[in-house]
Structures are given as C-alpha cells and as structure tokens.
Amino acid sequence: MKKKLGILSLIVLIFINSFAYSASATSYTPFDEKGYYDYTGYIGKYKITLSIYYEESKVVGTYIYDKYRKEINIDGKITGNKIILNEYDVSHNVTGTFQGVLKEDDTISGVWQDKKGIHKYKFKLKLNDILTGGEYGHRYDVAGFDQDKDVAEYVTKFREYVKNDDASNISELISYPITVTIDDKFVDIKNKKQFIKNYTKIFTDDFKNAIINANTNYMFANWQGVMFGANLKNVWINYVMDTEGIYITTINN
Q1: Are the beta carbons of 75 and 61 closer than 8 angstroms?
Q2: Does some domain include residue 203?
C-alpha cells in the first residue's frame, strides 16, 4: 500500500510541476519595468526596427522600414505572452495590425496584416536594446537631454556632413581634446585644425559606412551619453555644460 501511495504522489508531483512550467511559459514577457524596448527583424522580406514604450501592459511607440526610415506610429497592449499592436497613419486611422507571441528567446513572432486583411506577412523580431525609466517622448533623459528631437536633428546633421566628407563642419561638432585611433594607435586630437588635417585617417571607409548607415531613430543611451553608429564603430554625444551645447565627446573609429 505504501508503494502505491508513493507512485501516486510522484504522478501528482509531476503533474503539478508540469502545470507550473506551462503556466510560466505562457505568461513569459521581457517587460519587467517601464521604458523603451527596441526590436529588429522582418515583416516578410522587409527589414524593420521597432521601438515600443511599455508601462503597465500598455505599449506605444513607432517602427520604421529600414530602407525608408519613416516612422509609423503604433500602440497596443500585452496580455500574458500575447501582444497586439495597431499602426496608424498621420490622421490616426488604423492601417495595419501586429498580432504576436512573446517568446523566451526574447523574440516576438506572429502575423502582420493590413487593415482590410488583404496583405498578410509573418514577422519575427528580436530584442536589441532596453532603456528603462523615464517618460514616453523623453528617450534620452538618462543622458541629460530634455528633447529627443534635439539629438535626432544633431545626428542627422552629423551624418550628412560625413556623407559629404565635410571635415570642416564635422570639426565644429567635436569637444576637444578627443582621442581617436590613427594607424592602430591612440592619438589625442587637440583642436579643429589637427582634426581636419587627420580627417581621412580618422574617417576611414569602414567608419564612414557605420555612421552613414546608422539608425537615427532609436539610439542607445545611458549616463555616458547617446551612442550613434554601429557595433564597435560609433560616436558618443553629450550636452557639454562648459560650452552649453551638444558635442561629440567620444570617437570609436
């Protein structure tokens, strides 16, 4: 009799553990606190970048098709591990819907369809960055910037200068002295004149491509500033109190 009770208890224990695991799996979400959660991935064959601001199961934000970089407004809600996002045009008319599942590998998978349901595409997005805290519309608060648009305008201007190899105007955006890499050695650039003289050695093709192709919409930020670039090739931007302006304070070329 004792042996039978032992087996029965074991079966009950396995059932309880299986149920607990199933419940935790279906309620998985990466959203532990309010803030920005940035994803990259594809709708069908189209590459997109999506940034949502989460607060108490509600989400709001924007996404872009990387090829065009024009922001599309979205909002929606999260229930358990399910997420629904509606996208809107400039008149706030719904133009499409994401319906997806949050998975433990920090991805969202599901189906995007247009308003009429004529066009449907599978999508899969991977969590790329998290910027917690702050309020919506103030993504770069952590770096000391009151207005997100000021940072976006600054990096857009900087990227245009790089596209045109405008060393003179780029030199005006830098806080000196600044350390760069030239011929695999660290070099301290003390002023604008020295920067312009060494511009082609600093802005190599690889570094220029990283800046030109970087996303200006959803940049990473922390207490050290705002990072603009790709992978290990980037610049960091800060508000410099001494000169009361926005400047490039670090160049990782």
Answers
A1: yes
A2: yes
